[in-house]
Amino acid sequence: MKVAVLRFPGTNCEFDTQYAFEKLGHSVDLVWHEDKNLPADIDLVVVPGGFSYGDYLRSGSIARFSPVMKAVTAYANDGGKVLGICNGFQILTEAGLLPGALKRNNNLHFISKHQTLRVENVDNAFLNQCEKGEVLNIPIAHADGNYYIDDEGLKELEANNQVLLRYCDKDGNDTVVNGSVTSIAGVCNRDKNVFGLMPHPERALEDILGSVDGVKMLKGFEA
Amino acid sequence: MTAIVNVYLKEGVLDPQGKAAHHALDSLGFDGVSDVRIGKQVVIELDTDDKEKAQAEVKEMCETLLANTVIEDYDIEIKA
Question: What separation in angstroms does the CA of A16 have from each of A5, A72, A179, A182, B43?
Fold first, then answer.
């Protein structure tokens, strides 16, 4: 698999993401935000975590107008697979490629810890290696992860199986982590080719880091 | 002309910063505060003297960049 990982000023998870996909045997191209085109023959675009443009105005609001995002939007509209992690999720919602928006955490704190997540839907190109209801242990690290969508939008997400992950306790019961609507941690678009989540699967690939649950998440794209 | 744009979370969208400030005001003994909402103000200097044109242009700026209309509302004041 050939993966393009984007870099904006302020991105800081691009090398972790590159390491993760290379560890799984894939080739990775880092793509600068000023590039107008994505590399040829890619299988996946990853918008990685960090603090693009210092989170000024709103997280992701400036990055989404960068030249490379035009190419990503065209790629996504053409059916190409796109994954946004953390700041990448924020950028994709700002760009309108994913529904909803991410607000400041309800406790106003930057939350950095391992967090259990419940897999909500597996009929997609991302979580197909996981089982519905499975509880995963994946680190989170964000200040603006409080997912908001209105009631109508939420109904649509549920009806189309677009909710990917919810924050839960170790037994799989919903838990409030950052104030997200119905504890949502990740969603996809209606066509199920654009995915976004606040947790960092690329940080959960080795036992020494406390979890390897990120492997089966990222491996989903191989299928 | 100067455009003053206020951006704030929509009615019904919980404002965690406003809530924290409200709680602090209560703790300080300020009675009778029923709600606190925190937004941001953007001050834009414009070259034009045409108020209508300025209004239309700033509205487009808000819709495109300055506000995320999924969660935020905005108002615009144009000053000479």
Answer: 10, 21, 27, 29, 39
Q: Which region holds residue A168: left if phi is over 0, alpha if psi is between -120 and 50, else beta?
A: beta
**Total domains present in chain A:** 1
Token couple for A122: 């597996």
Task: Report pLDDT for A223.
Answer: 76
Nearest to A162 by CA among A180, A187, A185: A187
Q: Where are the alpha helices (DSSP H) in chain B?
A: 16-27, 51-61
Residue of A13, A86, A168, A188 marked catalytic: A86
The pLDDT tens digits for A24-48 are 999 999 999 999 999 999 999 999 9
**Residue keyed to tokens 């406790």:** A107
ipTM above 0.95, yes or no: no
Whole-angstrom Cα distance, residue B57 to residue B45?
A: 12
Q: Check: pTM over 0.90? Answer yes or no.
A: yes
Q: And the tokens for B51?
A: 């108020």
Best A58, A59, A93, A144 residue to mutate vs chain B (most B CBs within 10 Å): A58
DSSP category for residue B28: T
Q: Would you call B16 and A103 a contact, using CB atoms and an 8 Å cutoff?
A: yes
Structural domain range at position B68? 2-79
A86 is catalytic: yes
Q: Return the CATH number at B14.
A: 3.30.1280.10
Report the C-alpha gap between A194 and B38 in whole angstroms.
Answer: 32
| DSSP for A56-91, written as a single string | -SSTTTTGGGSHHHHHHHHHHHTT--EEEETHHHHH
pLDDT value of residue A132: 97
Contact status, residue A52 vs residue A80, Cβ threshold 8 Å? no
Look up residue A14 and give its two tokens: 């691009």
> Structurally, how many domains does chain B consist of?
1
Which CATH number is A188's domain given? 3.40.50.880
